[in-house]
Amino acid sequence: MDDPIPLSALQHALYCLRQCALIHIERVWEENRLTAEGRVLHETVDVHQRHRRKGVRVVTSLPIACDRLGLSGVADLVEFHAGPDGETPYPVEYKRGRPKPHRADDVQLCAQALCLEEMTARPVPEGALFYGETRRRHPVVFDSALRDLTETTARRLHDMIRDGRLPPPTDTRKLCRACSLATACQPALAGRSARDWRDRRLTALLDETEAMEDLP
Question: Cα–Cα distance between 212 and 216 in angstroms, integer?
Fold first, then answer.
């Protein structure tokens, strides 16, 4: 069985599949101003705590997993809203910036909902994304289209990681400017892994050494 995929990998995959492979296959990571701001924002919910607020049970930094899709991670904050037939989980994911035109953040949040549904055997119909720039929650409804996209992304990620190949870069200059891995990505290496580059470089060095040994 494959190792569980981090929930954040789904967001990475929909933002840029090559970025996702660099992080989760090649184990490459670099920080820039944007990632640092996101890390600071998460520090407010990165400590596991439980408390009640206006009658709602709140848990921060909650470990979650979905065996069916092979996912695991930590939910920033989950509210448990009491009802006549039990508590309904409501995940809240913290993000820097503002709402995006793509669905990468929505899919990461939906993946948390799928984990919570498997763990609690309770339906999770909705959650929210809290953006640091707008300083407010943006509700996300987990409809069938979003659930299908989330499950499809998870399965394709398992296939990509199992294959172990680095996808080629795409022409997304705006995304590349914001990416902390823009330098490590090296579009000239399209379709090749860091391991391939290392092996080619080692071969070149050996050839240079042999050439020097042949000199009179």
Answer: 9
